[in-house]
Amino acid sequence: MKKLSALAALIAAMTSCADKTPMDTFVGDLMGKMTVEEKIGQLNLLPGGDITTGAVMNSPLMQLASEGKLGAILNVKGQDKVLALQKAAVEKTRLGIPLLIGQDVIHGNQTVFPIPLAQSCSWDIEAIGQAARISAKEATAQGINWVYSPMVDISVDPRWGRVAEGSGEDPFLGCAIAKAVVEGYQGDYGDQNAMACVKHFALYGASEAGRDYNTVDMSRVRMFNQYMQPYKAAADAGAGSFMSSFNVIDGVPATCNEWLLTTILRDKWGYDGFLVTDYGSIREAVVHGIGDIAATSERALKAGTDMDMCSDAFINNLKSLLEAGRISMADIDRACRRVLEAKYKLGLFDNPYRFCQPERLKTDLYTDAHRQAARSLAAESFVLLKNQGDVLPLKKSGTIALIGPLADNRSNMVGCWSTGDTPELYSTLRESMARALEGKAQLLYAQGSNIYADAATQQWASFGRPIDRVDDAKAKNEALKIAKQADVVVCAMGEMAEMSGESSSRSDLAMPAPQLELLKEIVALGKPVVLLNFSGRPTIMNWEVENVDALMNVWFGGSETADAICDVIFGDVAPSGHLTMTIPQSVGQIPVYYNHLNTGRPVDEGSTQYIKYSSNYIDVRNEPLFPFGFGLTYTSFAYSDIKVTTTPNSPTLLTVSATVKNTGSRACTDVAQFYIHDMAASIARPVKELKGFERLTLAPGESREVSFPVSRELLSFYDAEGNMVFEPGEFTFMIGSNSRDVLSLQTTVE
Ligand code: BGC
Question: Which residue's C-alpha comes closest to atom 12 of ligand 1?
Fold first, then answer.
């Protein structure tokens, strides 16, 4: 018996030796030479302070890097600074281990792409992947090798400012985007690729009341079916790292939550990248109330956290915790190994200065090709919500008045989290329109109003990019004067960049008062009015929708926003964006989202009346202002002939298809969307769930069939343990151009 187990152990050792990759061998050898202090140093991540995203720390980075007390740095701007720190780590320490250089590259670098929420409205997965590739190329040219993106937090609450950074409310679309972005950044870890960091694990988008950093509490079924899927898709796509979130899950801060970080991420999903905390979150776990800093350091490490971002917790506590027997050497080794593996994957041990090539600063930033990609994605991200009397596209003739506090502003166009932007290179809308109209039409301009009322009380604005304050009455008069002279008025209004993003939650989602007042007076003049609504989130626009002639949500479109807007409003490009977050009628409806459960007392979709003892409000109907998936263009599309076909002997259970026809007079692109509803299952299932989509461009009069294959996996859902379940039975399948207006059929799936 003894002999047998010795033999088994020998075979196991030989097999594991044979299974060892060159990375395992390299990292194993390196760790064999490291002291405990050196290992703990690898787990420490501190900020450079060039971009501030939390408490200012003023850490002596150069000294710490030279002493081997740093594994990584974040938000240091400039290749020269990065190089100096990398040299300190490589040349001044005993083992010369290079640093990871992290940054919040969220939607581009010097070339800025639309905010992620806007990108998702393009439903153009290829273009979104390309944006990530370009972002990584520009970031790596500046010395960055680790990007804190994609942010894949599902959210159904537009009060939460960070919806700007995500892909909206839908898990299916969220998964497709998560995969494309991870693959876009990382590629095959070549010289122009950076490591992705998927965030914020997990459920951060469900912060109560949309208030940032707030409590999260939800059922496991909702968690697995609605919120967890994009994280899993990103893990499956091979994301090199994950960032834990600030919120609690089951009362335990994510950073210290063993169930989340180990049971689910590691054991269930088999994730083997490394896990970093969010900014200061081991310290914040003390404030949450689960123990002192030694206790939260212990819990974070044991839960599965590998690197401490900006808490100074691991560096100051792990050694004494080890000596006290509260953590083991194996805990430290596990974390250290994962961090070293990340550096290995990035090729930093072969060449620590791989991403510090000075010539790339001249060739790889803000190139014509990058700008073109950003411009085209921006144009695809705009969502046309109303176009009465075909006021859009505008003719390049006559007199056009451009009015609004965002019309001649350079720095707010890019939106939140534009850490590598260079606004002086970008055009304002006024400049782009002047170029587009030169020699053809007259352009008049007036700012018209302040962006928000009462500057003295708006403390948040001091963190933003200022827009000149004006005397409201005087500015309004100037605006009305030019509006009267114009054939059409284009209003550039909405939020400024700082009104969305981190720590920018709003309880009131209406257009700020001075702008709405101005808009009302402009509309009263009776001229055709086009409203371009800038926003980092769905905003409430009931009056606007009723009263302007055309309304297009342009979000924050990045460095090329202005030219992209001109492309669309003058008709060189037809709009093709579709909403990825529902737009509510009132804040009181939130959360309002398309893939909700039915309740036992539903009211019919579209019901115009209050119904007693049914699930509705006395003062507003259940319908949103615009449903998920909605978006108009310069033509109309008709959907017909939905049908199901089965192909014998195929892994696909069946295929659902429909015919889409362009019934208008110009070639345009629609996003055909495929939804399912599981009519009876062991748990209640959403009334609709997106399960497929296709962007298709059709010439006038042209028809095409769109087909969506249906597999068992596609019809499955998660149980409370996070296992996928397939339950045959009755399903409704739906196809349409948004989540409300669909053709549907019902069939039994066996
Ligand atoms: C944010 C993260 C970001 C980090 C580093 C935090 O405040 O939540 O999304 O990556 O700062 O800047």
Answer: 53
Residues 6+ apart with CB under 8 A from 19: none
pLDDT of residue 647: 81
The answer, yes or no, to whether any atom of ligand 1 lies below 6 A from the CB of 278, is: yes
- Matching CATH number, 635-749, of 2.40.110.10, 2.160.10.10, 3.90.640.10, 2.60.40.10: 2.60.40.10
Could you check whether 378-587 and 635-749 share the same CATH topology?
Answer: no
* CA nearest to 581, candidates 203, 165, 168: 168
Question: Ligand 1: does its nearest atom lie under 6 Å from the Cβ of 48?
Answer: no
Give 3-state DSSP helix, strand, coil % of the chain, rounded to 5: 35, 20, 45
- Residue 3: per-residue pLDDT: 45
Q: Which atom of ligand 1 is nearest to the CA of 310?
A: 5
DSSP string of 451-496, one letter each residue: SSS-GGG-GGGGGS-------HHHHHHHHHHHHHH-SEEEEEEE--
Cα-Cα-Cα-Cα torsion 276, 282, 284, 286, nearest 10 degrees, comes to 160
53 lines ligand 1 (CB under 6 A): yes
* 8-state DSSP, 261: I
Could you report the per-residue pLDDT of 682-731, keeping only the tens digit for each? 999 999 999 999 999 999 999 999 999 999 999 999 999 999 999 999 99
Q: Is the pLDDT of residue 507 over 50?
A: yes
Pick one of 3.40.50.2300, 3.30.750.24, 3.40.50.1700, 3.10.450.120 as the CATH number of 378-587: 3.40.50.1700
Residues 208-227 have a mean pLDDT of 98
Q: Where is average pLDDT lowest: 6-15, 207-216, 317-326, 544-553? A: 6-15
162 lines ligand 1 (CB under 6 A): no
Q: What band does 457 get if pLDDT is binned at 50, 70 and 90? A: confident
Please tell me the residue having the least CA distance from ligand 1 atom 7: 53
Residues forming the active site: 278
